[in-house]
């Protein structure tokens, strides 16, 4: 079988789980995990930000600080290796990594052709002048925007009901994909959960690497189960 030329990889919280970053739906029954008794779906929304901005800012300040103490794991590193190696292995080959995760572990592992479709913890967005800034500290004290000086910075995160980033770039990559690989995602959140159907429509091969079967498992030609730090390097190498 010939090697795929263009690979599109989608990752979710499961790829960072072994770096010590909690997944979302890791509750005992696979239900929504909670933060201070709040469902993430109830805090990660524009409505929650209007209703209780301090609660939402504290939620993201806590997570922004926490991820800075975490390290990329063998799965992140294997995907960065694949991206670097693919063009030499297959003429004109490419690897596009679309992540739902808002940590920076793929980037720190060396992935470059990376689309963080749900935003990033280490970025702040000014709702007054629409500028974005690398940000590692808290936002709870309403720091001034480095561009316009107003105290209008919010987490640069795509909340439920908001449009994910770079959907055009994602659709362009999906349109030419020969192989679509989904790693560490429950397939609960759209539009990411629908990408496998796009892949099937254009005739790409589809592979799922996950700890357990996702909600979209039936759409994949092949599924391999296990912890990402084992099954991702096994697949890459
Ligand atoms: C949009 C930032 C319009 C926040 C996030 C009704 C039906 C269908 C859809 C909807 C509906 N009502 C509303 C919607 C749309 C909604 C949605 O899908 N809701 C869901 C809850 C039903 N989506 C939206 O609102 C999106 N916007 O639709 O806009 C639009 C669309 C297209 C074009 C134009 C307009 C915006 C969604 C973005 C929300 N923001 N994150 C934050 O992080 O604080 S989503 C959030 O969930 C995270 O980003 C996370 O990545 C994402 C998905 O979760 P997973 O990554 O899959 O994580 P999860 O815990 O669920 O699963 C972990 C998996 O890993 C498990 O399978 C587990 O087995 C596995 N695992 C665990 N450990 C390991 C492992 N695997 C390997 N190794 C391990 N060690």
Chart the SSEs and their pairings.
Elements: E1 6-11, E2 34-35, E3 38-39, H1 40-43, H2 46-51, H3 53-67, H4 74-89, E4 94-99, H5 105-109, E5 114-116, E6 119-126, E7 132-134, E8 153-157, H6 167-175, E9 179-183, H7 195-201, E10 205-210, E11 222-225, H8 228-236
Parallel strand pairs: 1-4, 1-9, 4-5, 9-10, 10-11
Antiparallel strand pairs: 2-3, 6-7, 6-8
Helix pairs in contact: 4-8
Bound molecules: ligand BV8.
Ligand BV8 binds at residues 12-14, 17-18, 23-26, 40-41, 44, 100-102, 118, 157-164, 167, 184-186, 188-191, 210-212, 214, 227-228.
- Reading off the top of the CATH hierarchy, the class of the largest domain is best stated as Alpha Beta
Helix content: 25-40%
What is the domain tally? Answer: 2
Radius of gyration: 18 Å
Please state how the strands of the largest beta sheet are arranged side by side. 5-4-1-9-10-11
Average pLDDT figure: 95
Write down how many β-strands occur, each being a DSSP E stretch of 2 or more residues: 11
* Protein structure class: alpha/beta
Could you explain how this protein is built, in words?
The protein has 237 residues and is an alpha/beta fold. The protein has 2 domains: 1-21 and 72-118 and 163-237, Rossmann fold; 26-69 and 122-157, SIR2/SIRT2 'Small Domain', CATH 3.30.1600. The chain is 30% helix and 21% strand. The chain contains 8 helices and 11 strands. The strands form 3 sheets. It has a 6-stranded parallel β-sheet with strand order 5-4-1-9-10-11, sandwiched between helices. The protein has a 3-stranded antiparallel β-sheet with strand order 7-6-8. Helix 4 (74-89) packs parallel to helix 8. The chain starts with 5 loop residues before the first strand and ends with a helix. The model has no long low-confidence stretch (mean pLDDT 95). Bound molecules: ligand BV8. Ligand BV8 binds at residues 12-14, 17-18, 23-26, 40-41, 44, 100-102, 118, 157-164, 167, 184-186, 188-191, 210-212, 214, 227-228.
């Amino acid at each position: 079988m010939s090697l795929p030329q263009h690979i599109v990889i989608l990752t979710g919280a499961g790829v960072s789980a072994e770096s010590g970053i909690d997944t979302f739906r890791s509750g005992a029954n696979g239900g929504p995990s909670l933060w201070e008794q709040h469902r993430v779906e109830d805090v990660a929304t524009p409505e929650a930000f209007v209703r209780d901005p301090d609660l939402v800012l504290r939620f993201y300040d806590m997570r922004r600080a926490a991820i800075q103490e975490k390290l990329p794991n063998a799965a992140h590193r294997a995907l960065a290796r694949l991206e670097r190696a693919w063009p030499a292995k297959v003429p004109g080959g490419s690897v596009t990594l679309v992540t739902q995760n808002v940590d920076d572990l793929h980037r720190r592992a060396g992935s470059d052709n990376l689309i963080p479709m749900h935003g990033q913890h280490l970025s702040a967005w000014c709702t007054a002048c629409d500028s974005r800034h690398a940000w590692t500290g808290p936002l709870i004290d309403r720091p001034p925007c480095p561009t316009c000086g107003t105290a209008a910075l919010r987490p640069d995160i795509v909340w439920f009901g908001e449009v994910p980033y770079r959907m055009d770039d994602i659709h362009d990559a999906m349109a030419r994909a020969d192989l679509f690989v989904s790693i560490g995602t429950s397939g609960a959140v759209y539009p990411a959960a629908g990408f496998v159907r796009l892949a099937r429509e254009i005739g790409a091969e589809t592979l799922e690497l996950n700890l357990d079967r996702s909600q979209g498992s039936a759409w994949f030609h092949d599924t391999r189960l296990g912890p990402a730090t084992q099954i991702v390097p096994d697949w890459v190498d």
